[in-house]
Structure formats: structure tokens, C-alpha cells
């Protein structure tokens, strides 16, 4: 045995190669934090819109009017619902994009620092195994909304996202599995607590993401 | 006392061959190009090590095509898996022996 490669170092090399070739390990803790912050802002905006709508309907301030975004006397109740619905969809879309882009950028920065390509086979596998359950879940939720089952939106998001994360844990740092379990527990409880959907959604996508992100940053990225 | 070094597999002394085996033991099938990228080596260098591993019966070669381009992939054999695991065990025993 040559003295340049002591056994401990060799074993560590073997382990590193195994991990690097089968898992995408550059996922940054900051990605979790930024996604969580986006989710909290999105939930806050949605809550504002909903309470504004409820106040208007019950407080007699009139109805939302198309185009103006303000309340007026001329609108119809049906229009108000439709506008609220559209507003919430826009908020959801912006929240999703902001979370996706910000978390992508933090992970891109980390993989650059580590000198690991972001486009190798491990990323493709991770992406496919995360996106598949999320796209299927998204379709289910869209149909549920069209059928008027709004109570299913929050638990549906939590449950399908939780399943996606548990599935993804085989292809990246394994701790993401616990984030998935957390989302699943919240989603399942929320199946029986329908009216509190937005709070459960904010707890899962906001708080859990931030807690997970800080933990992962602490464990893998902190400079001692 | 037995010499702990005698259980080490000479074939895995090379860092590139050791890297190839580490990758193949956790991935069902890996292409030549992916191996090259992950190990950061040149075509010719990697090819000679792959021939060596193949001749020892540790890996299987699958030649295929993607369109007109050749796509060579590799997978580990039973014998390769056993040899590599024995090698890892020997390394672990050396560490235990040093303590």
C-alpha cells in the first residue's frame, strides 16, 4: 500500500464518489429559507384579499368591480367571487414562481462554489422524481377547484408536495424526507380542519421550509 | 498475525479504477461520458482503465446507439461487487487495526 493514500482517506473518497454519482448534494439550505419566505408573503397577500372580500360582502361596502380593483355599488356578487378567485390564482402563481426562482438561484450559487455541474444525471433524476408527483397533484387540485371543493386545495398542496419530497429524498440529501413527512402530517390533519386551510398551508410551505432550510444550512454550509 | 494489506485488491490501487467501481456499485448503468465527467479524466485514460476492469470480469460493457452515435454504458458484475466490497472491508479492517 502506498503511503499517499491512507485507508481512511480512501474510504472517504469512495463514499464521496458514491454520493456524488447518485445524489444531487448541492441543494442549499438558503433555498428552503427563501421558498418559505415567499410562501409566507403569498399567504399573507391571500389572507388580505380574502378578508377584504369578506368585509365588503358582509359590511355592505359593495362589490369588487372588474378592471378597477376597487369596491363599488354597481357590481354583482358573482363578479366579486370571480375576481377573488382570479386574484388568488395570480397570487398563487406569483408565489410559486418567486419560490422556484429564488430557491434555484441559491442552489445554483452553491453548486458553483462546490464546482459541481447543475446539469448532470443526478439533477435530471431529482427533477423528474419531484416534478412528477407535483404535476399530477396540481391537476387534481385544479379539478377540485373547478368542482368547487376549495377545502381540498390546501391539504392537496401539502399532501402531494409531501409525497414529492419523500420521493425526492432518494436523489438528494436525505434529510428532505423529514420535510416531506411534516408536510404530509399537516396535510392530513387539514383534511379534517377545512376552514383553516390557509394557516396550514402557511405552516407547511412557510414555517417548515424555513426551519428545514436553517437546519440544512447549519449542518452543511456553515463556515466554522 | 495476518498482514492486513494482503487483503487489499491491487486492481483498486488506481484512484480512477476505484472511482469507477464506487460509481458503478450505486448506479445500475452509467455511460462512458458520465463516468468521464464525474471522474474528470481524459477519454484515453479512462478507456484503458475500463478495459482493465472488464478483463478482470468486474464490469460489463453494453454497446448501444443513440441515433448514429455510439453510446457505451457499463454496469458492475457480481464478481466486481464482491471484489469491491472485500476491498472496502479490508480498508476498514486496516483502520480498526491501527487504533
Describe the structure.
Chain B: Pfam families: HTH_34. Chain B: Residues 16-95 form the Winged helix DNA-binding domain. Chain B: This is Transcriptional regulator. Chain A is mostly helical. Chain A has one domain (28-218). Chain A is built from 7 helices and 2 strands, in the order ααββααααα. Chain A has helices at 7-22, 29-59, 77-114, 121-146, 153-168, 176-190, 197-221, and strands at 63-64, 71-72. In chain A, strands 1-2 form a two-stranded antiparallel ribbon. In chain A, a hairpin with a 6-residue loop joins strand 1 and strand 2. In chain A, helix 2 (29-59) runs antiparallel to helix 7 and helix 4 (121-146) packs antiparallel against helix 5. Chain A is elongated and about 80 Å long. The mean pLDDT of chain A is 86. Chain B has 99 residues and is an alpha+beta fold. Chain B has a single domain, classed as Arc Repressor Mutant, subunit A (Orthogonal Bundle), CATH 1.10.10.10. In chain B, 55% of the residues lie in helices and 18% in strands. Chain B has 4 helices and 3 strands. Chain B has a 3-stranded antiparallel sheet with strand order 1-3-2. The A-B interface holds A 1-2, 5, 7-8, 10-11, 13-15, 17-18, 20-22, 117, 120-121 and B 5, 8, 13, 15, 18-19, 22-23, 25-27, 30, 34, 37-38, 88, 91-92, 94-95, 98.
